[in-house]
């Protein structure tokens, strides 16, 4: 498709935090497993990675870096409907923002994946964990599918195999479930507007391109 054209690799300057990883969710022995894995705590862990960044900063990074070659997010989602802060953001939207930041963050070095001190590696592994947690608690939505797709995009562009090969299958299955209206949030899979219909079509097109 002409929408997914070759572009020079450019990165936004986004500040990451070394705190707020998934592992920090389980360090308090007084917290029960149910409390640890609740949506609020998962969201707090995600936000902890980039608490110095506002939703508008992530939207700007997407439009500058990703939208020219992967225009799959509805403009209203990052425009009129964009939350002013993370307190007003949903869990799946917060996850989507984390994957945008992942794709837009420049590696510290060519050996970042082999470094135990790499913030990008920390964000990458945390993002994979968050997606698994959302899957485990039954959260599936357009934003989650797009998050999975961006994670796979990151893995492909950085040559992370077999992770990318495994991840794309998860993207396809999550999208199929959403399309069939069987997602566990009991949300209708039918688009409520023309913009949402286009968003879903563009997301499916991107999945097919990635799965070639």
Task: Give a concise summary.
With 212 residues, this protein is mostly helical. 51% of the residues lie in helices and 0% in strands.
Question: What descriptors fit this protein?
Answer:
212 residues; mainly alpha; 8 helices
Describe the structure.
With 212 residues, the protein is mainly alpha-helical. The chain has one domain (33-211). It has helices spanning 33-36, 39-49, 55-66, 91-104, 119-136, 142-157, 163-179, 194-210. α2 packs antiparallel against α5 (119-136). The protein is globular. The chain starts with 32 loop residues before the first helix and ends with a helix. It comes from Trichoderma harzianum CBS 226.95. This is Transcription factor domain-containing protein.
Number of helices: 8
Q: What Rg, in angstroms, do the CA atoms define?
A: 16 Å
What are the low-pLDDT stretches, counting only 5+ consecutive residues below 50?
Answer: 1-7, 19-27, 182-188
The proportion of residues forming helix, as a percent range, comes to 40-55%
Distance, first to last CA? 12 Å
Mass-distribution shape: globular
| Beta content | under 5%
Organism: Trichoderma harzianum CBS 226.95
Protein name: Transcription factor domain-containing protein
Write the layout of secondary structure elements.
Blueprint: H1 33-36, H2 39-49, H3 55-66, H4 91-104, H5 119-136, H6 142-157, H7 163-179, H8 194-210
Helix pairs in contact: 2-4, 2-5, 3-4, 4-5, 4-6, 5-6, 6-7, 6-8
